[in-house]
Amino acid sequence: DPQGSGLFNRVTRGVLYDSAEAEGKRLKNPFDTVTEGVGINRLTENFKMLLKTPGMISGAVKVSDAEAVAMSRFVAKHDGLFIGSS
């Protein structure tokens, strides 16, 4: 999960934000990121379903924008799937 996305924190800690985003501390643009925007701290219905289904998500890792973009291109090229950074 790239910087700025809350999904890593949701999977590993059960919350969609971290201490840097606590009330009164949240910056307008807390991360300089090219991959995040729409999904920042938003839990979609399909992700909620995955969280409720045992064994569907085994963990999460935090990666840089460059790593997220490189992996999405790798998966598109090698597996034919167009995926997002999270």
Report on this model:
The protein is an all-alpha fold and 86 residues long. It contains three helices and no strands.
Secondary-structure element order, N to C: HHH
* Derived structural class: mainly alpha
Instruction: Give the terminus-to-terminus CA distance.
Output: 5 Å
Give the helix tally: 3
* Rg from Cα: 14 Å
Helix share bin: 25-40%
What can be said about the biggest beta sheet? none
Question: What key attributes describe this structure?
Answer:
86 residues; mainly alpha; globular
Short précis:
The chain is mostly helical. It has helices spanning about 5-15, 45-50, 65-80.
List the helices and strands and how they pair.
Blueprint (H helix, E strand, L loop, with lengths): L6 H7 L31 H8 L12 H15 L7
